[in-house]
Amino acid sequence: MTGICREGPEARRACMAREGRKRLYFIVAMGCQMNVRDSETLAGMLEEMGFSRAGTREDADLILYLTCCVRENAENKALGNVIWLKELKKIKPDLVICVGGCMMQVQGVAESLIARYPFIALIFGTHNLHRFPELLCRVLEEKRPVAEILDGDGDIVEGLPVKRGSAHSAFVNVMYGCDNFCSYCIVPYVRGRERSRSPEEILREVRGLVEGGTQEVVLLGQNVNSYGGGGNAFAALLRSVHETGIRRIRFMTSHPKDLSAELIACYGDLPNLAGHLHLPVQAGSDRVLAAMNRRYTREHYLKLVEKLRGVRPDVGLTTDIIVGFPGETRQDFRETLSLVREVGYDAAFTFIYSPRAGTGAYGLPDPVSMEEKTEWIEELIALQREITGRVLKAQIGSCQEVLADAPSARDPGWLGGKTGRGLMVNFPGAPDMIGRFVQVDIGSAGRNTLRGKVREEG
Ligand code: 5AD
Ligand code: SF4
What we know:
Bound molecules: 5'-deoxyadenosine, iron/sulfur cluster
Low-confidence stretches: 1-6
Structural class: alpha/beta
Helix content: 25-40%
CATH superfamily of the largest domain: Methylthiotransferase, N-terminal domain
Shape: globular
Largest sheet: 6 strands, parallel
C-alpha cells in the first residue's frame, strides 16, 4: 500500500495530477436503489480525486460496474458486461475497469473473476466502499490489479462525498443490511446484518438537502421497518424528517411483518409523506409464504392494506412477487392471482424464482417446469396490466401534483414526473419546470403512464 493515498483527498488529487490529463469515469449501477445510491458515493469520491463524468462508456478512462446478484439473470448480465469490456480494453489498453457490488460478496466470485479476467483493475465489495479511493490509487500507482473483499458487516462510514444523480430528488440511506433471511434471498449474505444510521446523521443530511433545494427524499433500507431495531423507531424518524419541511418523502422497502401501526398512522398525519407504499408480498398462499420464511400470512397482509387505506384511501400500492418458488403448486399460484386482484396494485414487479446457492431454499425439490412457470408469470403480468390500466384510467379528469423530473425521452417539448402515488405523468413543459411541483390536469392514460396539461397558475 502506498502512503500517499492514506493522506486524504488532497494527496489523492496529487496522485491523480501525476497521471497528467483530466480523466473521465462512467458508472453502471445494476440492481436496486442501494446500488444507485452507492454509485453516487463512488462518483463523489472519483470527482474528489479529479475525475469527471463521461458522457458515454466509450469515452471513459475508468468504467465501474456495481453488480447485483439477487437473481441469476442479474449475474449473467454483469458477467456479459465484463466480457464486453475485455473487447473495449483491446482498443483502449489504458482503460481502468473496476467491479464492485453485491455479486463480489458471493463466496468465490471475486476469486474466479481475478483468475479469469486479469484485465479487471479493481475488485471491491459492499463493505469497503469507503476504501475505494485508496484502492484505486494503489491500482494507478502500482499498475497492477487490486482486489479487496471484506467479510462481516461493514461499519457505517459517515461524511463520504456524494455526487447526486438528481438535484431535486435524493436517496438517503437510513440502514444497511438485512436480518430476515427469506429463504430465497441472498441479500442478508452479501449486505450483512442490519445496521442503522443515527437519526441525527440522517436529519443533518435531509436538512442540508432541503437547504440546497431538494424537493423529495427517498429513505432507503432493505427493511426500513426494522430501522433502529424496529418498533416505533422508523415512524419516529419519518415524523422528524417531515419536520425538516421537505416537500415529499418516500421510503423503501417495507417488510409486511414489521409494518407498525405507528407507521400506518404516519400516512394519516403527515401530508408530505407520499401516498405510496411498496409492500412486497412475494406470494398469496400461506403455505408458500411459510416456506419463504416471510413470517406473515395472507390475512395479515390484507389487514395491513385495509388499515392503510383506512387512513389514506387513495394510497397507491406496489409489490414484488416471486412465481414458481420450489414446491409452489398451481393452486398456490391461483392464490397469488386472487390476492393481486383483491389488493389492486398500481404495479407489481414479478420474478420467476431463481435458486441462489447458500440460501435456505437452495436445492429444495422444484418439480414445476420452467415452461409452466413462464406461463404462470405471463398470466400474472397480464392480470397486473389490466389492473394498472384501471388504476390509470381512474385518474383521468383529476388534477395531480407532479414533481417535474426530466425531459420525456419520447416526446420533444414534454416532461415526465411522478404523482405522490408514484404514477408517471407526461405533460408539455419547459425545461425550467424541472425540479418543481406542478399541478397537472390528467387528460388520458397509456399503458404505464398518464398524460396531462399543466394547470395555469393563478
Ligand atoms: N428469485 C427470484 N426473485 C427474487 N427476489 C429476491 N430473491 C429472489 C430469487 N432468488 C425478488 C424478491 C425481492 C426482489 C427485490 O427480488 O421479490 O423482493
Ligand atoms: Fe431479501 Fe427478505 Fe431481506 Fe428483502 S427482507 S432483502 S427479500 S431477506
